[in-house]
Amino acid sequence: MRPLNRRQPPLQAPRRGLTGAVMGAAKGAVLGAARGAAMGVSGEAAQAHAPQTQAPRRHDPAPSYWDYKMQRLWLTPLFRVLFRVGLPVLAVAAVTGLVLASESRRVAIAGALAQLTEQFQARPEFRVSLVAVEGASPDLADAVRARLAVKLPASSFDLDLDVLREKAEGLDAVASAELAVRSGGVLQVTIIEREPALIWRGENGLTLLDATGHRVAGLAARADRPDLPVVAGEGADVAAAEALALVDAAGPLMARLRGLVRVGDRRWDMVLDRNQRLMLPAERPVQALERLLALDQAEDLLARDLLAIDLRNEKRPILRLGEDALLEARRARGLLPEDDKKTESDL
């Protein structure tokens, strides 16, 4: 039996000799020549009957010389800025210059603008007809209105708020001021008033000072403000803060305190009733006063007959005795004659 997977050998073409090959080549050449001639005749006939058309011209994608130059200019940042900004600005400037070249045109334009501005500023919603002062006493509020001297009604555009604020703060009793135009045509002035803290007895009489030593107002009599301590002496207003610190430290002595005297524009003397005087040092006077108060609490020193206590030397305080205490001291030491002793004993 023949195996199933065995292929049959392909059919082999019969071998041709040299003569067959030559004849085949000649036959092919003749057939090709005849076919070419036939196609040439049919092509000439079709070309003779077809309309005469010209072949389309191919487009050159390369830019022209001027297109290339313009593209290069647009790539320059300066040229783009000049074209987009400079050219419109130049055109507007040229038109403005041509319009304003005539003096009559300039006068007419200025007059029209002034009239429009005046009409706009004179509108009722911009009119101020009332000045309201807040945060001040009635007397100070009247003084502020008189100092501002605003002629009502007035346009809010005619009010210089900075200048008015400086005028209000020019008053001694005004610490700061804020001005604003509110709805309804109200010029609101908010005042922060200075609070009197001291009474300064100077050459021109009594003056109220605030905690910084700034003048608040004049004072007719000491009895008008008995709640405030009194300071005197040259430079007492400048050292007002130190004086207030001494007053705060002299808590137990407030009932006896009569005032503070500035000596030589460098230190303080605290004056008590019964003409007692505490001479404080120029440096650290508050600490010296606190030490004296501690000594007084332990020894009841200030209740004795003393005219002055000199605390200028921290290590060596000095006591100045009163007249009676001085006589008693002399009598205790045996420095008085017998007649004086009898006289004193008889008294």
Can you describe what's shown?
This protein has 347 residues and is of the alpha/beta class. The chain folds into three domains: 68-113; 124-193, Ubiquitin-like (UB roll); 198-341, 3-Layer(aba) Sandwich (Rossmann fold). The protein has helices spanning 18-49, 65-74, 77-100, 103-121, 138-148, 161-169, 240-249, 285-299, 323-333, 338-346, and strands at 127-128, 130-134, 154-155, 174-182, 186-193, 198-202, 205-209, 215-219, 230-232, 257-263, 267-272, 277-279, 306-310, 318-321. The termini are far apart. Residues 10-16 and 341-347 have low confidence and may be disordered.
SSE blueprint and pairings:
Layout: H1 18-49, H2 65-74, H3 77-100, H4 103-121, E1 127-128, E2 130-134, H5 138-148, E3 154-155, H6 161-169, E4 174-182, E5 186-193, E6 198-202, E7 205-209, E8 215-219, E9 230-232, H7 240-249, E10 257-263, E11 267-272, E12 277-279, H8 285-299, E13 306-310, E14 318-321, H9 323-333, H10 338-346
Parallel strand pairs: 2-5, 6-9, 9-10, 12-13
Antiparallel strand pairs: 1-3, 4-5, 6-7, 7-8, 10-11, 11-12, 13-14
Summarize it.
The chain has 10 helices and 14 strands. With 347 residues, the protein is an alpha/beta fold. It folds into 3 domains: 68-113; 124-193, Ubiquitin-like (UB roll); 198-341, Rossmann fold (3-Layer(aba) Sandwich).
Overall outline: elongated
Kindly identify the CATH topology of the largest domain: Rossmann fold
Rounded to the nearest angstrom, the radius of gyration is: 58 Å
N-to-C series of helices and strands: HHHHEEHEHEEEEEEHEEEHEEHH
Q: How would you write the strand order of the largest sheet?
A: 8-7-6-9-10-11-12-13-14
How many strand units? Answer: 14
From the coordinates shown, what is the CATH architecture of the largest domain? 3-Layer(aba) Sandwich
**Mean of all residue-level pLDDT scores:** 82
The assigned structural class equals alpha/beta
- Please indicate the percent range of residues in DSSP E strands (runs of 2 or more): 15-25%
Number of domains: 3
Distance between the termini: 181 Å
